[in-house]
UniProtKB/TrEMBL annotation:
It comes from the Eukaryota. This is Putative E3 ubiquitin-protein ligase LIN ARM-like domain-containing protein. PANTHER family: OS04G0584500 PROTEIN. Residues 72-98 are annotated as: Disordered. Residues 6-230 form the Putative E3 ubiquitin-protein ligase LIN ARM-like domain. InterPro entries: ARM-type_fold, ARM_LIN. SUPFAM superfamilies: ARM repeat (SSF48371).
Length: 231
């Protein structure tokens, strides 16, 4: 793995450079379909690389985890073990590599979220309001992975301003988009609710989200849990 081949003091610099390059490419992809397709593929590869399966994550995978089945109104809640494995970011590795992989993951997350000013998150939030549904769907999958990763690494201590725009866009998608996108947004919001600062923000938004969450509690288990946490 790349993390085992780079000097620790340089690792963060390389990761930050790569993350900024992704943000720049996403910006360009808002107006260029070819760049957009490449960015979507790159984001899905990134998320998949740090999942337990190591495979590219698709919207079908995430929707299935949320209990959504082709518009079915039948709610299927996961068992406790299954819930713990939702987009698990544990990196499969040999024991001797575990510490370096953990350091790489922390460096990656810190570069993605920044210290309150995150080019990556700002670009993701702009993409979430794009008219291009494939880009919106891919960014929702990315945010689902990122929020899951963050909730496993941190339960508090994150810089709230970095997430304000993204969480606001997730709320808008939950309120106004088609059911599949609502499902992806609800899973990200549920993951964010596990982080103290984000949960406080979500409770401020709770009144606006209450009616739609109530309407989804029998369809999406993440909506049911999020409703219980916020109301």
């Amino acid at each position: 793995m790349f993390a085992t081949q780079v000097e620790p003091q340089k690792l963060g610099i390389y990761i930050e450079t790569a993350v900024n390059a992704i943000a720049d490419a996403l910006d360009a992809g808002l107006d260029d379909e070819k760049i957009q397709k490449k960015c979507c593929k790159a984001l899905l590869i990134l998320c998949g690389h740090f999942s337990t399966t190591g495979k590219i994550i698709t919207d079908t995978t995430v929707l299935k985890q949320a209990g959504y089945k082709n518009g079915s109104s039948e709610l299927k809640s996961p068992s406790y073990d299954e819930e713990d494995q939702q987009l698990d970011v544990t990196i499969s590795s040999e024991d001797e590599e575990e510490e370096r992989n953990e350091e790489f993951m922390i460096n990656l997350l810190e570069s993605l979220i920044g210290d309150g000013e995150s080019p990556f998150l700002k670009t993701i939030s702009r993409c979430l309001e794009s008219r291009h549904l494939d880009l919106v769907r891919t960014c929702l999958i990315t945010v689902t992975w990122l929020s899951s990763s963050l909730s496993k690494q941190y339960n508090a201590g994150l810089h709230l301003p970095a997430f304000l725009a993204v969480i606001s866009q997730l709320k808008e998608i939950l309120l106004n988009s088609e059911l599949e996108l609502k499902t992806l947004a609800s899973m990200s919001l549920f993951n964010f609710s596990k982080i103290s600062e984000c949960r406080t923000l979500l409770k401020i938004m709770a009144q606006d989200m209450a009616p739609i969450l109530h309407g989804l509690v029998d369809v999406i288990w993440t909506a049911k849990k999020l409703h219980a946490i916020l109301m």
